[in-house]
Each structure stands twice: as structure tokens, then as C-alpha cells.
Amino acid sequence: MSKGAVSSQLMLLAYSQGIFPMAETATDPELFWVDPKRRGIFPLNGFHISRSMRQFLQRNTITATLNTDFETVLFHCANREDTWINSTLQANYKELHALGQCHSLEVWQDENLLGGVFGITIGGVFCGESMFSLSRNGSKSALAFLTVHLKNCGFSLFDTQFITDHLQSLGAIEISRATYQSKLADAIKLPVSITSQPIPDVQSILQRNTQTS
User: Fold this and answer.
1) In the chain, what are the domains?
2) pLDDT tens per residue across span 149-180
């Protein structure tokens, strides 16, 4: 891993090769490249909705939107005491959003923002960058909507970069660098778009999860 200037276009090139940049802290101006030996991914048919999560979605008015409030999602993801998103990355994400290659998914409870997730798309791969919750089940709901939406749009790879206990409990798995590179090479060739299909509703989320669980 080496440090240096990173532009939005360089980021796209790096992501297409399975590499991504991070900062040590939000205030560190330098970025370094990461190429994990083990990679976290979400199988698009393997998202796990727990009984309590299912009850939450059934008992509340939960909806999702795409790219409705990208800058707010980015703000909440970066506005943490411990974060790897520095000012350079924030600027690059905004540039890539303007180019149609960085997207946010927002989840709402009634008309209140509950949580969200954002990431970069190249062909049929979604490179998840970060997520946040403003209330209970915010990020879980965002991931539930996103995995079904990506599947509906024809994506084949949802990259989470690293795996955590939280992501693993939702169905994420860890694969080798070589396996990831193979999946990535196939995914980036797909002529798909994250805006090609409407965002699913809660019933679609629950139905898909029942079919695949």
C-alpha cells in the first residue's frame, strides 16, 4: 500500500482492479491503497432478515429511495469520531455521484430519514463504501432494500470490502482475493444500471427473503 494523490478517475480505475483507497482518519490528508487478502461480499440471494427485523418492516411504514439525498448520506457516513472518509474522498465521491457512478440509497420511516448506504458502481458490481443509522434498524433496512434492488437491476457482485460480525449476521461472506478478482472481472462487463428498475417495496423485500431463506 502506498500513499499519494487520488483523483475520482483514478479511484474508478482502482476499483475495476479490486483496489480501493482509505485514509487513516478523517483529518489525515493522505490516502493509501487497500487490496485485502480476504474480501467481504453480500450474495445477492443471501441477505438474512431476522424475525425482529421482519416484524419491524411489517409494523412500520418503511420506504426507500435512490439518490434522493446523496450528500446527507455521505455526511452521516463521514461525520463520525472514527472514520476513514477524509475530505479528498468526500470530494471524489461527490464528483463520481455527479458522473452517475456513486449512488446512495436512503431509507425512510414515514417521512423521517432512518438510515442509508452509498457506494460506487462499475458495470454489475456495487462497491459498498459506508452506511449509517439515525435510528434502530436504519442500516439493516438500507442493506435489505439495496440487495434486492441490485438483484432486480441485474448486478452480480455486492462488495463490502471487509467483513464484520454485523455484516456476517446479515448474510455477508468472506472470499479469497483470487475468487473476488474472478467475480469482479465478470461483473464489470455487465451492461446494467442501478437506475434501471424502481426501488422495491417492503413486501418485495420480505417475499424475496422468504424465497431465498
Assistant:
1) 38-212 (3.40.630.70)
2) 999 999 999 999 999 999 999 999 999 999 99
pTM: 0.93
**What string of DSSP letters covers the chain?**
--EE---HHHHHHHHHTT-EEE-SSTT---EEEE--SEEEE--TT-----HHHHHHHHHS-EEEEESSSHHHHHHHHH-SSS-S--HHHHHHHHHHHHTT-EEEEEEEETTEEEEEEEEEEETTEEEEEEEEESSTTHHHHHHHHHHHHHHHHT--EEEEES--HHHHHTT-EEEEHHHHHHHHHHHTT----TTSSPPP-HHHHHHHHHHH-
**Each residue's pLDDT tens digit, 54-104:** 999 999 999 999 999 999 999 999 998 889 999 999 999 999 999 999 999
